[in-house]
Specification:
Elements: E1 11-13, E2 25-27, E3 30-31, E4 39-40, H1 79-93, E5 110-111, H2 112-133, H3 138-144, H4 155-173, E6 175-178, E7 182-188, E8 191-196, E9 200-203, E10 209-214, E11 218-221, E12 225-228, E13 234-245, H5 248-253, H6 258-272, H7 282-300, E14 305-317, H8 319-358, H9 366-387
Antiparallel strand pairs: 1-2, 3-4, 5-9, 6-9, 7-8, 7-10, 11-13, 12-13, 13-14
Length: 389
Amino acid sequence: MTTTTSHVPEHVPESEGPADGVTAVRPARLIHAESTTEIPVHLLFREQPAAPPAEALPRPAAGAHRPAPDTAREPAPDKEDRDTRDIGVRARAAAPGVDPEITERPARVLPGIAGVLAGVCGAAGCAVTAWWAGVLPPLAAEALGLSVRAGGLGPAQWATFAGAGALGLFGFGGLARGRTGRAWVLELFGRYRGTVRRTGLLWVNPLMLRRRVDVRLRHWRGEPLPAADRGGVALRVAVLVVWRVRDTARATLGVEDHEGYLRACVEAALLRVPVAAPGAGRGAVQATQDALTRLVAADAGPVGVEVCAVRPLRVEYAPEVAAAMHRRRMAALDARHRASVVGSVVDSVEDTVTRLTMRGLLDLDDGERQVLVKDLTVAFCAGRGETGP
């Protein structure tokens, strides 16, 4: 009988190195096991083990197994969808930057009644000053029920005239009418001071420069622009762009002409996106529309223009390839027509020969059958050629 002893030693000798050469032996403080390495004993009896630091936590390996996507819930995107998403990501990454200080904010304006009252007070002040200085016409004085005074314009009268006139000019000169769907971008000595989107009678500082901006939903239908399909064939595409101004400050001050900038963005997007060829399916047309909308919105968004949709209205081949594509299509149609004619003639000849043979009207050998088939084929083809289109 063979006895197997454990490979785990009960005591581990440790040399203390005494001078008398005696070796001291003390109990081991390490536990050996097959599934663990050396573990200090004092760590097994701690009440609350210390959590490892955040930087010491193990990181998943590069080749770690990841859960497979749920194909039943979300189907894998096809190549066209992936290309469209890649185009959108590149468009967002290449979007131009705009000065962060140019952002729309409301301007400080007063109700129109304040301007009216200021103007009336200024006009009344001028009339009273003219009567005080004695320069008010007699007819005006009689109409107002005032007595005619004699005098002249002195420094006090001139100062009063200036103050009342400035008040009247500021009061009446700052009156403005706000309309629905329109906004004003205000500038004072070249500095942006805010945007007015309120409606009704308002009073705006007359020293400010006003720029009217249309903020309604608008559409733009451009002329046919150059484009290409997935095969690189030149096309001419007319698009319909639905857009509106979202940030009036950026649309007015961030770019010289936001409408011209939008047209340039549409033209650039048509050169970057493969357009569905004429006669393509609804899915290809929708993918083209989504890609164009995403690109133009990414380019025009930083300048305060919101693009809702870019829809191709008319897609046609470019003049330099239109004739070749027409000849190619006509040749394909002619080949299809010839194939259908030959198939129908062969079926007619076979049906005729089979009926004659089955009814016993003809008893032909192979040579005579071939001659009959040849004659019938020529006759049927000639007849179809005379009556066909």
